C-alpha cells in the first residue's frame, strides 16, 4: 500500500539547544484513524504542525504522495492546504458573530468535492443547531461545529491536535466517536494527537511519543466505540 503522507528524518529545534523532534520517520495510509499519544510537552503539536504544513522542519522532508510539502513556498502551501488538509485544535476558533451554518460554510471550497451541509451536520448530531450562535452551544457542540467546518471541504487528511483537550470525559468520547464515524463514511485519513490513553483506543493505529521520539507504533486490532455501537 502506498503512503498518503510520509515523514522522512524529521527534526525540529526551536533554538540551538532544544531538540524537540529527533529523526522522525512515519508513513500514514489512506482511510486510517491514527492516534499520536504522549504526555504534554513531548512534541505532538510540533509534529502535527510540521506534517500538516503549518511549520517547517529544521531537517527532513514531508511528502504528500510525491510532493515535498516541507519545502513549498507559503503561497503554494496555502493553496494546497485549502483543498487537501484540514486542522482542528483544542480551541474551537468559531467566529462568535456568525451562526453555526455560517461558520461551517466558511470551510467550503466551492468545488464539487464539498460535502452536502445537511448530511454532514446530521452525521455530527448538530442538525438542530444550524441557526444558533457559538455562545449558545456547549463545548462539545462547539467542537463538533469546528469539525464540520474542517470536514465540509472533504479533505483527504484531517489533523486533530488535542481536539478533546478542553472537553470532559463524556464529551471527549462522543467527539472521537463522531470522528470515527466520519473516518468510516468519507474515508478521511485522521491523525489525532492526545495525552489520553482511553481516547486512543478508538484508533486503528497508536503511535506513542516520548521526548521528541517515537517510542512505540502499533496497530490496534479491535478499535472501540464508546457510545454509538
Ligand atoms: N515556538 C516555540 N518556541 C520554542 N519552543 C517551543 C515552541 N513550540 C513548542 N516549543 C517547545 O517544544 C516542546 C514540545 O512542545 P509541543 O507543543 O510540540 O508538545 P505537545 O506534546 O504538543 O504538548 P501539549 O500536549 O502540552 O500541547 C516543548 O518543550 C515546548 O516548550
UniProtKB/TrEMBL annotation:
Pfam families: ABC_tran (PF00005). The keyword ATP-binding applies. The keyword Nuclease does not apply. It comes from the Bacteria. Gene3D superfamilies: P-loop containing nucleotide triphosphate hydrolases. CDD domains: ABC_MJ0796_LolCDE_FtsE. Keywords: ATP-binding, Nucleotide-binding, Transport. One of its GO terms (molecular function) is ATP hydrolysis activity. PROSITE patterns: ABC_TRANSPORTER_1, ABC_TRANSPORTER_2. Residues 5-227 form the ABC transporter domain. Belongs to the ABC transporter superfamily. This is ABC transporter ATP-binding protein.
Amino acid at each position: 500500500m502506498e503512503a498518503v503522507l510520509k515523514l522522512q528524518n524529521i527534526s525540529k529545534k526551536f533554538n540551538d539547544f532544544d531538540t524537540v523532534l529527533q529523526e522522525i520517520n512515519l508513513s500514514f495510509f489512506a482511510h486510517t484513524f491514527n492516534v499520536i499519544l504522549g504526555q504534554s510537552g513531548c512534541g505532538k503539536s510540533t509534529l502535527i504542525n510540521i506534517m500538516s504544513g503549518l511549520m517547517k522542519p529544521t531537517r527532513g522532508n514531508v511528502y504528500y504522495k510525491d510532493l515535498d510539502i516541507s519545502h513549498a513556498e507559503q503561497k503554494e502551501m496555502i493553496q494546497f492546504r485549502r483543498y487537501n488538509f484540514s486542522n482542528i485544535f483544542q480551541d474551537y476558533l468559531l467566529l462568535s458573530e456568525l451562526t453555526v451554518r455560517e461558520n461551517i460554510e466558511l470551510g467550503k471550497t466551492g468545488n464539487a468535492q464539498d460535502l452536502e451541509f445537511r448530511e454532514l451536520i446530521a452525521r455530527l448530531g448538530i442538525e438542530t443547531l444550524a441557526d444558533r450562535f457559538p455562545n449558545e452551544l456547549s463545548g462539545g457542540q462547539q467542537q463538533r461545529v469546528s469539525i464540520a467546518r474542517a470536514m465540509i471541504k472533504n479533505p483527504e487528511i484531517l489533523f486533530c491536535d488535542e481536539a478533546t483537550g478542553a472537553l470532559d470525559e463524556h464529551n471527549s468520547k462522543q467527539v472521537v466517536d463522531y470522528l470515527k464515524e466520519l473516518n468510516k463514511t468519507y474515508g478521511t485519513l485522521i491523525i489525532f494527537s492526545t495525552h489520553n490513553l482511553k481516547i486512543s483506543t478508538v484508533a486503528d493505529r497508536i503511535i506513542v511519543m516520548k521526548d521528541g521520539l517515537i517510542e512505540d507504533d502499533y496497530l490496534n486490532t479491535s478499535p472501540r466505540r464508546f457510545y454509538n455501537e
